[in-house]
Each structure stands twice: as structure tokens, then as C-alpha cells.
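Entry for the shared binder. Reason: the reviewer on the internal report wants the predicted structure included alongside the sequence.
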Amino acid sequence: MKWMRRLYDWVLSWAESPYGSWALFFLAFAESSFFPIPPDVLLIALAVGVHKKAFRFAAICTAGSVMGGMVGYLIGWQFMELVGNHIVALLGLADKFGIAESWYRAWDVWVVFIAGFTPIPYKVFTIAAGLFKINFPLFVVASVVGRAGRFFLVASLLFFFGPQVKGFIDRYFNFLVTLFTVALVGGFLVIGKVL
């Protein structure tokens, strides 16, 4: 996994570059369909460097991620045999792809929101959404809400608490996002039962 660490360090190096915002956009775009490093890494580094621009960085990250998700959808919808299967195999996500299928059958477009917000590999669900022909406009809306929720949560923590919260986010990010998602989905289920 040395290559993964080198890739991670390379992503972080963009935080020191005047092209950091562009790198964030393209990283978020690529991660939504084929790249293994999540954009949160660079988002956190940029927002720590200039925490007053944290929300701007979150918006850039959201835009890139949603556009990349649309490309992932296109791959699954039209190019699964040509490209999609290779991406899934290369990243070792074949087992997660089976999970994505069962979740889509049970939850439909809600899965896109959950995958967009949580640490679940979003690219698996963008490609799978195209393959299973999930309603595209709903896919886009769920992607925007899920990805914006995730990136603006990180930006909010960094904006209000500054660089000292970085270690906390790094250490507990997956747990906090999963906990928030469970609470959110539980809330929707309760509201659905009450109404």
C-alpha cells in the first residue's frame, strides 16, 4: 500500500499550491467515479490553511463531486463493460458493488444520499446508479444534498473551530458521519411512521 500513501501525500501537496482550489475540484470530480482518495483530505488541508474560505472550498468540492458522480452514472449506464467493470476491479470494490445492488433494490435513490454523505465509497454507488437506471434527476438531487451535507459539515467545523479541530476530524470523521447518518435516516423513518 506504499503507492496509496504516496498518492495521499501527493493529494495533500496541492494544499500548498496556488492551484489548490482547482485541484480540489478535479479530485472531487475524479473520486466520484474512479479515484481512490476522498476529497476530504484536500478540503481539510485547504480549509485549515485559510479557514475563512472553508465554505467556498466546500462548494467547490460539492460541485466537482456531483459532476463526477454524473460521469460515474454515465459509466454505469453506457460503459459498464468497457470501463465500469475495470474501475470496480482495479479499486477492489467488487464485493461492495453487490451490496450496492441490494441496497438500490431496497432503498432506491435514498442510497445515493447515504453514500454521498457517509464514508461508503461514493463511486461504487454512482456507477451502480447508472447500471441500475436509477431516476437521473433524483440521483442528481440526492447527490447534491448528500455531498453538500458532508463537505459543508467539515467546512463548518473548520470555520467555527479553526485548525485545532483538524486532529479530531481526522480521527473520528467516519464515526461522526456514520452516527449522523443513522440519526438522520432514523428521523426520516420516525417521521414516515408518524405521518
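Summary line for the report: Residues 21-194 form one domain.
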